[in-house]
Amino acid sequence: MTETKGTLYLVPTPIGNLEDMTYRAVRVLQEVHTIAAEDTRHSGLLLKHFDIKKPLISYHEHNKDAKEEPLMELLLSGHDVAVISDAGMPAISDPGANLVLAAIDAVIPVVPLPGPNAALTALIASGLDTREFTFLGFLPKKSSHRKELLERVGTYEGTLLFYEAPHRLQASLQELYKYLGNRPIVLGRELTKKFETFVRTDLEALQKAEDLVTIKGEFVLVVGGAVHAESGAPETMSTDDYVSAVMMLMEAGTAKKEAIREVAKRLGVARRDVYNAVEAAQDT
Ligand code: SAM
């Protein structure tokens, strides 16, 4: 007789707006045997809202090693387990990754559900390059590690995505400027919530205007990639691309002049060329 193993489900939960819970997430949480939750009290409220009554096991950064064994026992004895974090995707700057590894080692099926994630939510509305990007999560705690990381990604041309806690925001913005130089930055604050805000500016401006950002709530930092001025614009860039990039920023709320300035900087081309392309497009 072959013993049937359970399935490990990775279930994203809303990052602020309960309407972002998917039908599938609700169904899976209703069907599993046990839910491993980062904070059982916090998740208890979410589960209550969706009328989900299941045994909860606390599974967080500080007990994840100890809790791996009982969770694996459940899975090995045929019970389905779902992992949820306080918000967004488990295993993204949240617990879950270790359990995924243990499950893979034990040939237990791992089923991820798509759903809310703060970094990608900020990225798609940022107006910065979405074709190539890298997610870096929270900056390391040790300053030597922060320096090492920022120097390493300093030449990367794609968009950089960071998480930051409000009490560290100002210090991190200073360090980003110190190691990356001036770059466009978009701060996505309180995403999906009542006071959702996007601040589109650059790192230099933020050094001078400390009050530009209301330091409250949760933030994603979307930072423009390195621009290699000597290489000029990529060969495939046409004036149409300049216009589309400017229009995208304008649609996202950036003033025309600022959008032209930002696009010229991002693409490493003369501001006049971008301006002329936009004027020509608007004349036709
Ligand atoms: N697992 C989550 C995800 O998939 O996005 C991330 C969890 S991480 C512990 C929490 C950080 O995500 C916050 O400090 C903040 O940087 C970011 N974050 C979470 N919710 C957010 C929101 N509604 N608006 C802006 N940033 C958010």
Structural write-up:
The chain is α/β, with parallel strands linked by helices. Helices cover 42% and strands 16% of the residues. It has eleven helices and ten strands. The chain has helices at 23-31, 40-49, 64-76, 97-105, 118-126, 143-153, 166-180, 203-208, 239-251, 256-267, 271-283; strands at residues 8-10, 34-37, 56-58, 81-84, 110-112, 133-138, 159-164, 184-189, 197-202, 219-223. The strands form two sheets. Strands 3-2-4-1-5 form a five-stranded parallel beta sheet, with helices on both faces. A five-stranded mixed beta sheet has the order 6-7-10-8-9. Strand 2, helix 2 (40-49) and strand 3 form a beta-alpha-beta unit. The longest helix has 15 residues, at 166-180. The protein is elongated. The N and C termini lie far apart (74 Å). The model is unreliable at 229-236 (pLDDT under 50). S-adenosylmethionine binds at residues 15-16, 85, 87-89, 92-94, 117-119, 163-165, 188, 190-193, 218-220. S-adenosylmethionine binds next to helix 5, strand 7 and strand 10.
